[in-house]
Specification:
147 residues; alpha+beta; three-stranded antiparallel beta sheet; 58% helix; 14% strand; rod-shaped; Secreted protein; coiled coil
């Protein structure tokens, strides 16, 4: 079935068709622009996630570094505090050597044949047993510097 229309109606229909094509083209361009923007945002998101992973790793390492530095600082402080003391090693009452720490003195005694397990602690102020009964002992003495 055919329909007969006038030129004015035909011109109106053609104009509407042209407007519809132009609108479709605009919408297609908008869709392509939106796709491009989505791709750009996905790339930016992936970059940001990568940076976040690096920053988390760096933060973890920084925390580990802080822990190690605290331990080193504690060690340095304790070594500095121990500089005002000296551990003196005696064998049957005779001075053998002087050391920075009690452990170093005990190690020196062990190198000279003392039993590493034979050390006992005597409370400060408690009298020591007779020297004949004690083959090795360490006494920690204060060091005083004169200027």
């Amino acid at each position: 079935m055919f329909r007969i229309i006038g030129t004015a109606v035909l011109a109106t229909l053609r104009a509407e068709a042209e407007d519809a094509r132009a609108e479709a083209d605009r919408r297609t361009e908008d869709a392509f622009a939106a796709d491009a923007e989505v791709a750009r945002l996905r790339t930016a998101l992936a970059r940001a996630e990568g940076e976040l992973a690096v920053l988390r790793t760096q933060n973890h390492l920084d925390n580990e570094d802080r822990i190690v530095l605290r331990k080193l600082l504690r060690t340095a402080r304790s070594e500095t505090a121990d500089r005002d003391k000296v551990a003196v090693l005696f064998r049957r009452g005779t001075l053998v050597s002087a050391h920075a720490t009690r452990k170093a003195a005990q190690a020196a005694a062990a190198a000279d044949g003392a039993s590493p397990e034979g050390w006992v602690s005597v409370a400060p102020g408690t009298p020591l047993p007779p020297e004949a009964d004690v083959p090795w002992h360490v006494t920690v003495l204060p060091v005083q510097t004169e200027r």
